[in-house]
Amino acid sequence: MKQLFINIKELIQVREKPVEKLSGKEMKELPGIKNAWLLVKDHKIADYGEMNALSEIDADKTIDATGKIILPSWCDSHTHIVYAGNREQEFADRINGLSYEEIANRGGGILNSAKTLAETSEEDIYQQSAKRLEEVIKLGTGAVEIKSGYGLTEEGELKMLRVIKKLQKNYELPIKATFLGAHAIPKEYKKDPDAYMKLVIEEILPKVAEQNLAEYIDIFCEKGYFSVDDTHKLLSAAKKYGLKPKIHVNQFNAIGGIKAGIEHNALSVDHLEVMTQEDIETLKGTSTMPVALPSCSLFLSIPYSPAREMLNAGLPLALATDFNPGSTPSGNMNLVVSLACIKMKMTPEEAINAATINGAYAMELSETHGSITKGKNANFILTKEIPSYTFLPYAFGTNSIEAVYINGKLVE
Ligand SMILES: [Zn+2]
């Protein structure tokens, strides 16, 4: 099956020579071809070029993209899409004056989601999560990572990871699974958090590995959650099972989580709302991708990651949604790209690079996703008629997407 897209106003994020990730100044460049064509053969990007150099191609289907832009799908490297129920009551509580931490201390927050998850059947969780996944695919997400972390018991964590596995089986886009048993300390372990770490490391982790339910390991390294010491223990244990770290650090406090992540060769360190100069220095020259989650900052009214400082220091940066029921009930990558421009002062080029190729890197998908490159999977967005790609983050409440393709197939 050959599909030919012609008269594309602009084909963007075209990388003739594949790149793994982009850092610092490199992120300012977003290569593209104006008045372009794109050939999709089966589920791969086969070829592309300028319209005036298009030779006769015998295609099964030709799509006229006059006035429209094609760009690679968003790569959302940090989500908690699998969960049960919602927490809109806490949303109202926060409006009425309670802080995220106060709500957590009252048994709300992550523990509230854990309670609901325990009471919901695996099939029901799957149905709720599949609906959310379909919603984000329609919003242009073509690769996604999903974490456990609302089980907080052996049964609950394995249940969540099995739901992720089922999503992997039933949907075309790549889905990466992360074990986040160390997301919060369950109420019954409040007086003895070490016993909970022991349960995660000695009981749950071996089963996750044995049943091949996750590729990555995560921990919420934060005051009131898990310490740097816990982080070292968990990441060392996970390494034996081949699980690479992608960890929650520096959301409210800088306690040394970044340094710990780097010592364990973390694929990514995520959140980074609070960054010290030392954290930035520590990240330099490493293979760890910093990941910012601006829609979480928006929802919680907390600081945004200091993107400019990181980029000016030459670091790479990826953008993701953090889609979850407590702090970011939205999986809209278009909004994330807008917020990165509006609130983090990233240029549209930097934000699009961060949400595509660097997001792919943070899921080890750079070879197959994140750019328009021959041989890569044909996961891309066809926009409506828009004046330029800068219009995407600029018109922040508008859905500029006309169609989404995953592996060359139009998402209906
Ligand atoms: Zn998160």
UniProtKB/TrEMBL annotation:
<feature type="domain" description="Amidohydrolase-related">
    <location>
        <begin position="69"/>
        <end position="411"/>
    </location>
</feature>
<dbReference type="GO" id="GO:0019556">
    <property type="term" value="P:L-histidine catabolic process to glutamate and formamide"/>
</dbReference>
<protein>
    <recommendedName>
        <fullName>Imidazolonepropionase</fullName>
        <ecNumber>3.5.2.7</ecNumber>
    </recommendedName>
</protein>
<dbReference type="GO" id="GO:0005506">
    <property type="term" value="F:iron ion binding"/>
</dbReference>
<comment type="pathway">
    <text>Amino-acid degradation; L-histidine degradation into L-glutamate; N-formimidoyl-L-glutamate from L-histidine: step 3/3.</text>
</comment>
<feature type="binding site">
    <location>
        <position position="322"/>
    </location>
    <ligand>
        <name>Fe(3+)</name>
    </ligand>
</feature>
<dbReference type="InterPro" id="IPR032466">
    <property type="entry name" value="Metal_Hydrolase"/>
</dbReference>
<comment type="similarity">
    <text>Belongs to the metallo-dependent hydrolases superfamily. HutI family.</text>
</comment>
<feature type="binding site">
    <location>
        <position position="248"/>
    </location>
    <ligand>
        <name>Fe(3+)</name>
    </ligand>
</feature>
<feature type="binding site">
    <location>
        <position position="80"/>
    </location>
    <ligand>
        <name>Zn(2+)</name>
    </ligand>
</feature>
<dbReference type="GO" id="GO:0005737">
    <property type="term" value="C:cytoplasm"/>
</dbReference>
<keyword id="KW-0378">Hydrolase</keyword>
<dbReference type="GO" id="GO:0050480">
    <property type="term" value="F:imidazolonepropionase activity"/>
</dbReference>
<comment type="function">
    <text>Catalyzes the hydrolytic cleavage of the carbon-nitrogen bond in imidazolone-5-propanoate to yield N-formimidoyl-L-glutamate. It is the third step in the universal histidine degradation pathway.</text>
</comment>
<feature type="binding site">
    <location>
        <position position="150"/>
    </location>
    <ligand>
        <name>N-formimidoyl-L-glutamate</name>
    </ligand>
</feature>
<keyword id="KW-0862">Zinc</keyword>
<dbReference type="Pfam" id="PF01979">
    <property type="entry name" value="Amidohydro_1"/>
</dbReference>
<keyword id="KW-0479">Metal-binding</keyword>
<feature type="binding site">
    <location>
        <position position="150"/>
    </location>
    <ligand>
        <name>4-imidazolone-5-propanoate</name>
    </ligand>
</feature>
<dbReference type="InterPro" id="IPR011059">
    <property type="entry name" value="Metal-dep_hydrolase_composite"/>
</dbReference>
<feature type="binding site">
    <location>
        <position position="248"/>
    </location>
    <ligand>
        <name>Zn(2+)</name>
    </ligand>
</feature>
<feature type="binding site">
    <location>
        <position position="183"/>
    </location>
    <ligand>
        <name>4-imidazolone-5-propanoate</name>
    </ligand>
</feature>
<feature type="binding site">
    <location>
        <position position="322"/>
    </location>
    <ligand>
        <name>Zn(2+)</name>
    </ligand>
</feature>
<dbReference type="GO" id="GO:0019557">
    <property type="term" value="P:L-histidine catabolic process to glutamate and formate"/>
</dbReference>
<dbReference type="InterPro" id="IPR006680">
    <property type="entry name" value="Amidohydro-rel"/>
</dbReference>
<feature type="binding site">
    <location>
        <position position="327"/>
    </location>
    <ligand>
        <name>4-imidazolone-5-propanoate</name>
    </ligand>
</feature>
<dbReference type="InterPro" id="IPR005920">
    <property type="entry name" value="HutI"/>
</dbReference>
<feature type="binding site">
    <location>
        <position position="78"/>
    </location>
    <ligand>
        <name>Zn(2+)</name>
    </ligand>
</feature>
<dbReference type="GO" id="GO:0008270">
    <property type="term" value="F:zinc ion binding"/>
</dbReference>
<feature type="binding site">
    <location>
        <position position="251"/>
    </location>
    <ligand>
        <name>4-imidazolone-5-propanoate</name>
    </ligand>
</feature>
<feature type="binding site">
    <location>
        <position position="324"/>
    </location>
    <ligand>
        <name>N-formimidoyl-L-glutamate</name>
    </ligand>
</feature>
<feature type="binding site">
    <location>
        <position position="326"/>
    </location>
    <ligand>
        <name>N-formimidoyl-L-glutamate</name>
    </ligand>
</feature>
<keyword id="KW-0369">Histidine metabolism</keyword>
<keyword id="KW-0408">Iron</keyword>
<keyword id="KW-0963">Cytoplasm</keyword>
<feature type="binding site">
    <location>
        <position position="87"/>
    </location>
    <ligand>
        <name>4-imidazolone-5-propanoate</name>
    </ligand>
</feature>
<feature type="binding site">
    <location>
        <position position="78"/>
    </location>
    <ligand>
        <name>Fe(3+)</name>
    </ligand>
</feature>
<feature type="binding site">
    <location>
        <position position="80"/>
    </location>
    <ligand>
        <name>Fe(3+)</name>
    </ligand>
</feature>
